[in-house]
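Notes, p. 3: input format for complexes.
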Amino acid sequence: MFDGPFGASIVSRAARDGLVDITTHQLRDYTKDRHRTVDDEPYGGGAGMVMKPAPLADAVGDLKKQAADAGEAEPHVILMSPQGRRLDQAIISHLSAHESLILVCGRYEGVDERFIEACVDVEISIGDYVISGGEPAAIVLVDALTRLIPGALGSEDSAPSDSFAPGLDGRLQGPVYTRPAEWDGRAVPEILLSGDRARLEQWRKEQSETRTRQRRPDLAGPETPETRSKDRSE
Ligand code: SAH
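Output follows (234 residues plus S-adenosyl-L-homocysteine):
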């Protein structure tokens, strides 16, 4: 599941350049029975299977030991879970301060609660919906974290002007356009062709503010009489 996303684009380039080191681990390697069992039936009955605590804890323990032996900081352990804190740019930037992270991906009905109590530092959700395994959620988290590493983005991408970035005070980015100047009877806003950098900066800021107030009022700052009249003229 990881080869595609981690073998392409920004994440693979960052790995190639030694900016990030991503390793996947096979949980079955940490089982002790012949069938390499990682799940079992839930106590108390009910549908689905539950991931056993021991292989998970042994895996986390082994990775922590490897880090300690290599003289690295203790990894921060994250469980991907729909019951976790809902991921946003602030959490990403907080997590990016850690030198090393272990992302645990659940399957089936989830993981035995005792593993969470004993080994997990934080549970992270990618949104209020359920997916079948933690892997796509981990891929989202790794991508978002990698973008923040200095040097990971090429000139064709630019984090400071992205939505939610500090450069935009956490707001949404405004609309973007490319050639041709007219397409399907629609012209790009005239200001983009004017070459007036100061006015352009101002325009981008206004677009970002307007868009954020319209689509995500929860992210917009307080309204002022000035922004109110601007919104009405849109
Ligand atoms: N029975 C659980 C859902 C299990 S889904 C419940 O009701 O809460 C199986 C696995 O997919 C989870 O263990 C988790 O690792 C992953 N997963 C599902 N939805 C997720 C989400 N929104 N964010 C992060 N991980 C998720």
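The two ends are 44 Å apart (CA to CA).
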